[in-house]
């Protein structure tokens, strides 16, 4: 991988981190309403996955989807305007945090239903195979969704029809406050792929290059007609399930995972390789924060939707 792509991936991670940190400030200050499921701590997964895709490849996301759509290429200003409920948002302010859809970038949608993106990604992969357009579909889902019926139905169908879909499990070890170990009889989500004769892999979700390298192989496998792949990324969210919820996770566990900050790990790697200096990395982070501040102002200053627009976008033309 060349230095240009590595620097882009570092910027992507910093942009997501800055976006989520700012959202936390805004909702704590009472400036933003609604539910927010922050992606802080998991940035390496979204960036590693999406940089292995083409612009028009499909992704389906989750309730914790801001990082996915930013990594796929959505302008943070448009994202912020959507969260403010403004007409300049990605969905004219009608989608909010959990229903962001940007078809021109292959983003079928973030999804408030646990496991809801699995059949959508499978359907998108079916369309790609039927149309022979060479696209692949990626489904982000959490460890909690792996216990939903939609998980097994989707994997079974994708394997039967050799659909070009990569199922990416962001295993952050908890469904709300329920540990995966208390909800599953298998240690790893990836082990479930064997039931469908599907290749799988487990990667360190704090290592963006490990995620990227595994995804490159998975995408090549799927795009070449060999069928689906399940990739499990072991990661950890820094904040509670949803801002304002109680967080019952052990503090020693939280501290150990936070010490494995994916951005710090990757920055130190690039410094060791001579690709960037600490001063340059600090400037990159400052620029990312400035970009997000500008996005906030864009969201604040954008117009509110007209009342009559409530009747628009309900039915297709």
UniProtKB/TrEMBL annotation:
It comes from the Bacteria. InterPro entries: DH_E1, PDH_E1_Alpha_Subunit, THDP-binding. Its cofactor is thiamine diphosphate. GO terms for molecular function: pyruvate dehydrogenase (acetyl-transferring) activity. GO terms for biological process: pyruvate decarboxylation to acetyl-CoA. SUPFAM superfamilies: Thiamin diphosphate-binding fold (THDP-binding). Residues 11-306 form the Dehydrogenase E1 component domain. It holds the Pfam family E1_dh. Residues 305-317 have a biased composition (Acidic residues). Keywords: Oxidoreductase, Thiamine pyrophosphate. Residues 296-317 are annotated as: Disordered. Transmembrane segments: none annotated. PANTHER family: PYRUVATE DEHYDROGENASE E1 COMPONENT SUBUNIT ALPHA (PTHR11516:SF60), PYRUVATE DEHYDROGENASE E1 COMPONENT, ALPHA SUBUNIT BACTERIAL AND ORGANELLAR (PTHR11516). This is Thiamine pyrophosphate-dependent dehydrogenase E1 component subunit alpha. It comes from Candidatus Pullichristensenella excrementigallinarum.
């Amino acid at each position: 991988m060349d230095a240009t792509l590595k620097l882009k991936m570092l910027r992507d991670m910093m942009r997501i981190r800055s976006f989520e940190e700012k959202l936390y400030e805004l909702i704590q200050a009472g400036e933003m309403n609604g539910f927010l499921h922050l992606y802080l701590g998991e940035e390496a997964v979204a960036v590693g996955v999406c940089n292995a895709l083409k612009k028009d490849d499909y992704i389906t996301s989750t309730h914790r989807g801001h990082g996915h759509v930013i990594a796929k290429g959505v302008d943070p200003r448009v994202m912020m305007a959507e969260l403010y409920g403004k007409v300049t948002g990605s969905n004219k302010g009608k989608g909010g945090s959990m229903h962001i859809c940007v078809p021109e970038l292959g983003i079928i949608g973030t999804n408030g239903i646990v496991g809801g993106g699995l059949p959508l990604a499978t359907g998108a992969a079916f369309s790609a195979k039927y149309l022979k357009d060479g696209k692949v579909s990626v489904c982000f889902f959490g460890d909690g969704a792996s216990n939903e019926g939609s998980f097994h139905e989707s994997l079974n169908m994708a394997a039967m029809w050799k659909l070009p879909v990569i199922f990416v499990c962001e295993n952050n070890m908890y469904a709300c406050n329920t540990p995966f170990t208390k909800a599953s009889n298998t240690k790893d989500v990836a082990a479930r792929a064997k039931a469908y004769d599907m290749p799988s892999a487990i990667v360190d979700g704090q290592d963006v290059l490990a995620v990227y390298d595994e995804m490159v192989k998975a995408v090549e496998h799927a795009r070449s007609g060999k069928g689906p792949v399940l990739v499990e990324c072991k990661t950890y969210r820094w904040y509670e399930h949803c801002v304002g919820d109680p967080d019952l996770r052990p503090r020693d566990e939280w501290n150990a995972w936070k010490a494995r900050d994916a951005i710090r790990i990757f920055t130190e790697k690039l410094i060791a390789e001579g690709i960037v200096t600490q001063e340059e990395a600090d400037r990159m982070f400052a620029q990312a924060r400035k970009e997000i501040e500008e996005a906030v102002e864009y969201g604040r200053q954008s117009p509110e939707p007209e009342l009559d627009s409530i009747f628009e976008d309900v039915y297709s033309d």
